[in-house]
Amino acid sequence: MSSNAASAIEEAKRAAAMAAVRDNYPKDAKYVGIGSGTTIVYVVEAIKNLAADLSRTSFIPTGYQSKQLIVSAGLTAIEFDALPEGTVLDISFDGADEVDDELNCIKGGGACLFQEKIVALQAKKFICVADSRKLQSRLLSSWKYIPIEVAPIAAYRVLRKLKELGSVNPAIRLTTVPKQGPLKTDQDFFIIDAPFPHPLLTKKDVAAGIDGSGKDGHWEVEALAHAIKQIAGVLEVGIFAGPTGLQAQARGAVGGQKPIAAYFGKSDGTVLVRKALQ
Ligand SMILES: O=C[C@H](O)[C@H](O)[C@H](O)COP(=O)(O)O
């Protein structure tokens, strides 16, 4: 990628972050979740630039990088397990590797997904921020695999089970120096990257009569996430699907995995906003 193209992508991420924070950051927020990755850096920058008193706000990190980001920005980090009992986060911001028409997301490209999911699930609202390359009508269109966090002791068994579900050549992710072996997550677990041969179906596809049960290799997003989560040794799946926080609250639950809105920055500085159906 040329340096011009790379800087256009960075500007796209920054534009998305600024718009997402401007439109959604709650006045007097007490608890704010901060995701992981390269785009979230611009979210923290945008929060810092708000004309708001942030001294009474606690920011909940989703891993090592996220915590460093919060602390380096001079904000107050509080670990998820130190939150007072019953705390609901006002909002959580995070990036994504791919987002479909129904705002289902693939996450974990940077090896963070477990903490991101528990933080999103504890938030009233989850806002996704990305550049426009991430917006595809179906998951597994441009991004080719599902990241899955697994216990090292079960990794080979999980690989076998993933093949039974139709994954083609799932693999344990290695560090950038392969002789150092598998990459370790913030939980000291492994990541398995599992490609599947077809883009994932949405609820709308299934409502239109397409079989998404995986029988002929075609999976609906939530059905696949559920099938993978059932494999013993899987800590979490890098698919964020199901209800949004607002939909969950309408049913008396706290948060949801799916964003209520996703912001996609373009290289010309414009931002496309997709909102979930309420
Ligand atoms: O594992 C990393 C996280 O799920 C990230 O939020 C995701 O990979 C998107 O990262 P980026 O903002 O760097 O594209």
Automatic annotation (TrEMBL):
GO cellular component: cytoplasm
Keyword entries, A-Z: Isomerase
Keyword Flavoprotein: no
Protein family per UniProt: Belongs to the ribose 5-phosphate isomerase family.
Organism: Monascus purpureus (Red mold)
Pathway where this protein functions: Carbohydrate degradation; pentose phosphate pathway; D-ribose 5-phosphate from D-ribulose 5-phosphate (non-oxidative stage): step 1/1
Stored Pfam families: Rib_5-P_isom_A (PF06026)
Name of the gene encoding the protein in the UniProt record: RKI1
Annotated protein name in UniProt: Ribose-5-phosphate isomerase
GO molecular function: ribose-5-phosphate isomerase activity
